[in-house]
């Protein structure tokens, strides 16, 4: 069973959206979008092995897993996610696809480089020395250590 991991970020102007970002809400919103865009057939294809593998509400980072043969259906439906629902509240948002990889590790490596680039852009826009020091500290902390590695789930050929 070949898998693909889709790394996304949740974009929202509503600061309350961060508090409702949870696995279940993201999974339901993505499934709903797939159903609207590709119908029952597309939803059935994408539902096999689909799961939210990682979610960081603080940074808005989401890692979705699906089968290799249906990742294009999944990716094409992501722009149609318009809101997340939590406790009967709806929060407008969008999912921006950052990277598609064959392993969790390749997505981790991409995310580190992506965050470094974002921090460098912030560094260039600093207005004072205190801001510069904080961002430089963040840049230096961007590294991948063995403790962060998730064994068993990373390899392209893993079975479930």
Automatic annotation (TrEMBL):
Protein name per Swiss-Prot or TrEMBL: Ribonuclease P/MRP protein subunit POP5
PANTHER family named among the record's database cross-references: POP5 HOMOLOG, RIBONUCLEASE P_MRP SUBUNIT
Role noted for this protein: Component of ribonuclease P, a protein complex that generates mature tRNA molecules by cleaving their 5'-ends. Also a component of the MRP ribonuclease complex, which cleaves pre-rRNA sequences.
GO biological process: rRNA processing; tRNA 5'-leader removal
SUPFAM superfamilies (UniProt xref): Rnp2-like
Gene3D superfamilies tied to this protein: Ribonuclease P, Pop5 subunit (3.30.70.3250)
Gene symbol of the encoding locus: Pop5
Family named by the database record: Belongs to the eukaryotic/archaeal RNase P protein component 2 family.
Subunit structure: Component of nuclear RNase P and RNase MRP ribonucleoproteins. RNase P consists of a catalytic RNA moiety and 10 different protein chains; POP1, POP4, POP5, POP7, RPP14, RPP21, RPP25, RPP30, RPP38 and RPP40. Within the RNase P complex, POP1, POP7 and RPP25 form the 'finger' subcomplex, POP5, RPP14, RPP40 and homodimeric RPP30 form the 'palm' subcomplex, and RPP21, POP4 and RPP38 form the 'wrist' subcomplex. All subunits of the RNase P complex interact with the catalytic RNA. Several subunits of RNase P are also part of the RNase MRP complex.
GO cellular component, one term: nucleolus
UniProt superkingdom: Eukaryota
Keywords: Nucleus, rRNA processing, tRNA processing
Coiled coil: none
Pfam families from the UniProt entry: RNase_P_Rpp14 (PF01900)
One MF term in the entry's GO annotations: ribonuclease P RNA binding
Subcellular location: Nucleus, Nucleolus
Major subcellular location class: nucleus
InterPro entries: Pop5/Rpp14/Rnp2-like, RNase_P/MRP_POP5, Rnp2-like_sf
